[in-house]
């Protein structure tokens, strides 16, 4: 392809027609593809991640008559920005990537999709890109941060590049850190003590939100999560950014520890602990600090569920994710891994639905976790849960 020094193919994603590196660049074995090996990053499997951005942006478009501007700090081939303009009807996009080849691909793709007039391509470091958009009149209605691995080093500048009431969308692919597999890295990057539990996906989301909340507070801003997802190898959160000390304080006040108790090889969540509290008893361990507030907004997720049905080219995974979030009442934190519990009791796992019904019959709160498929959220203690599981 003219202007690019590598072989390309053209793919259709949503309403965008995109020039991307030839698939062979990604291939590390006959059936395994690693997009980071390609001259420019494009991962077809991350369409579901981009679909979620498009769904949220489309809802925002419908609810706002004003001009909407999108910021794409690490745009790869530019596919997300192009789709925001073509599918969600946004007005303008700033499309940035610090790689020479990514920049060349962005320029070609914007031309091919007839979007040169409505876009601004750049080739600078993401933190500089954010800084250039951090004064009034230059900020974004939505900023997307999608690096390789952890996004932590882009959060402080990122929140300042979003308008009051605008959205910040963050993807993290260092799930081993967020899920407590690499405890040291979690401590270094996120400042948390975490370990692998049966509710590790929810925990990873709470770690990332805590880190975003702290970054926002440093610039006297608060954040309100509208949707959080842990899927495949990534965690993604989209949150509203609100300027002002009041919002900053409300957000950081939701940071605390979760007490967990380990019994029979199972971690049982024991409720939140405020930051200053230290007396935790012998059998409990503190997990965190974590963001302990709601990690998604039910009204937003309801709208996302409708949006994904209306836009029938969207990945069905997004509608599945939205529907499983809608089963989650977020009334308790974490959950008990039913498969792990059954295995520790040396019995086969009962149906999660039956266990929830039994818990509800006995007057406990109980629902599925929207994040960890085998988890039950409940205010019942482990002893009561074990009795129910054994009785089935
Ligand atoms: C995961 S890819 C982005 C994929 C893209 N957002 C999409 O949806 O297809 C990460 C991109 O970030 C770029 N990048 C990495 N570090 C950067 C930095 N410090 N500033 C700007 N871009 C960066 C890389 O060149 C790469 O294209």
Question: Which terms would index this structure?
Answer:
2 domains; three-stranded antiparallel β-sheet; Phenylalanyl-tRNA Synthetase, Chain B, domain 1; 17 strands; globular; seven-stranded mixed β-sheet; binds S-adenosylmethionine; Rossmann fold; alpha/beta; 392 residues
Description:
The structure is a single chain. Strand 8 (140-145), helix 5 (155-160) and strand 9 (162-172) form a beta-alpha-beta unit. This protein has 14 helices and 17 strands. Strands 7-6-5-8-9-11-10 form a seven-stranded mixed beta sheet, with helices on both faces. Strands 13-12-14 form a three-stranded antiparallel beta sheet. A three-stranded antiparallel beta sheet has the order 15-17-16. 51% of the residues are buried. It has 392 residues and is of the alpha/beta class. The protein has two domains: 41-291, Vaccinia Virus protein VP39 (Rossmann fold), CATH 3.40.50; 335-392, N2,N2-dimethylguanosine tRNA methyltransferase, C-terminal domain (Phenylalanyl-tRNA Synthetase, Chain B, domain 1, 2-Layer Sandwich), CATH 3.30.56.70. Helix 1 (47-63) packs parallel to helix 2 and helix 8 (200-218) packs antiparallel against helix 9. The structure holds S-adenosylmethionine. S-adenosylmethionine is lined by residues 41-42, 46, 50, 74-76, 79-80, 97-99, 102, 125-126, 146-148.
């Amino acid at each position: 392809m003219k202007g690019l020094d590598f072989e390309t193919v053209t793919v259709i994603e949503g309403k965008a027609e995109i020039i991307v590196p030839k698939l062979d660049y990604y291939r590390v074995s006959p059936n395994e593809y690693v997009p980071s090996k390609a001259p420019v990053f494009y991962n077809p499997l991350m369409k579901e991640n981009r679909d979620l951005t498009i769904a949220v942006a489309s809802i925002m478009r419908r609810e706002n008559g004003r001009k909407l501007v999108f910021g794409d700090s690490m745009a790869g081939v530019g596919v997300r920005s192009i789709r925001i303009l073509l599918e969600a009807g946004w007005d303008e996009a700033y499309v940035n990537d610090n790689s020479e080849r990514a920049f060349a691909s962005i320029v070609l793709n914007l031309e091919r999709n007839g979007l040169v007039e409505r876009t601004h391509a750049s080739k600078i470091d993401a933190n500089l890109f954010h800084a250039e958009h951090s004064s009034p009149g230059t900020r974004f209605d939505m900023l997307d941060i999608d690096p390789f691995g952890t996004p932590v080093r882009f959060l402080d500048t990122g929140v300042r590049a979003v308008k009051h009431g605008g959205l910040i969308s963050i993807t993290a692919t260092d799930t081993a850190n967020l899920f407590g597999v690499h405890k040291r890295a979690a401590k270094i990057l996120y400042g948390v003590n975490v370990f692998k539990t049966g509710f590790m996906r929810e925990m990873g989301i709470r770690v990332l939100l805590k880190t975003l909340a702290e970054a926002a507070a440093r610039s006297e801003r608060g954040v309100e999560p509208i949707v959080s997802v842990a899927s495949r190898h990534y965690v993604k959160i989209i949150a509203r950014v609100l300027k002002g000390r009041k919002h900053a304080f409300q957000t950081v006040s939701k940071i605390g520890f979760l007490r967990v108790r380990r019994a029979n090889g199972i971690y049982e969540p024991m409720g939140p602990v405020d930051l200053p509290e230290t007396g935790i008893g012998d059998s409990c361990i503190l997990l965190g600090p974590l963001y302990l507030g709601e990690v998604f907004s039910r009204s937003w997720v309801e709208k996302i569920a409708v949006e994904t049905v209306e836009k029938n080219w969207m990945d069905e995974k997004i509608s599945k994710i939205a529907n499983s979030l809608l089963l989650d009442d977020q009334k308790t934190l974490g959950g008990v891994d039913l498969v792990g519990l059954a295995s520790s009791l040396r019995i086969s796992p009962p149906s999660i639905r039956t266990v929830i019904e039994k818990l509800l019959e006995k007057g406990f709160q109980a629902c599925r976790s929207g994040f960890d498929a085998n988890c039950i959220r409940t205010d019942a203690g482990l002893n009561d849960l074990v009795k129910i599981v054994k009785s089935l």
